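User: I'm preparing a small set of examples for a lab meeting where we compare how different chains pack in three dimensions. I only have the primary sequence for this one, and I'd like the structure in token form so I can line it up with the others. Please keep the answer compact; I'll paste it straight into my notes.
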Amino acid sequence: MKRIETVFAALKARGRKALIPYITAGDPHPDHTVGLMHALVAGGADIIELGVPFSDPMADGPTIQLACERALVHGTSLWQVVDMVAEFRRSDARTPVVLMGYLNPIEARGLEAFAAYAQKAGVDGVLIVDVSVEEAPEIAPRLRAHGLDCIFLLAPTSSAARIGAIAHEASGYLYYVSLKGVTGAATLDVASVAAKLDQIRAQTALPVAVGFGIRDAASAAQVARIADGVVVGSALVAQIQKHQNEPQKLPDLLTRQLGEMRAAIDFATSPVMTR
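Assistant: Understood. Below is the structure token output for the 275-residue chain.
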């Protein structure tokens, strides 16, 4: 079993839900990223989504756009991000790492070269935001040939036919975008999310993680009751932005922030609370 599959199977056996934090690699500086990844694990992360900074992150709101700008000021490149994963792997062989970003930097390096380099570094999956399901047959098999899960986004507007097509191409897990908008948007309608998850699960056995709109422990707990995993990004990135000039504080701050979400998720999904 691959790392992502192993983690979800272990969590399911224990009645727990995955906590999947996102940070942008290179923010606030490339020298801090690996330490922040370890801080996320200390806070209870089951899988880490590591953003590859891009100059035009069209699916992201202002918070992550600014994180990309901060990372790019320091010259953070795709190859550097993969090297960060390799460094992380020197002391953590267990926690899956998914690279989340856009197709252009990968095409600039070449898909085969990227996939081989990522596999060697210990990357587990890739979520390319701007790759549609129509393009997937040209890309997903080549990533999987190098042991990389290909993770896709589903949206509130995804039709049943499109859900089926995406589920067919995906591996690892599916990422359901809970809101019509960009990362960091405000309103989370849990009932609507639950209804959509029922539609998705009717067509796939893959775990479904939910992201966008999860800001704190309370919203994380709400989503954990209905999803297989909870993705939190902008709230963590906002913390990094707030303390970008005192980065020595960030590991403890992120561990504490994520730890509160972990505790809330575990409490909300414990056997006593779910009866």
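A couple of notes for your slides: The first strand starts at residue 18 and ends at 24. The chain has one domain: 3-268.

User: Perfect, thanks.
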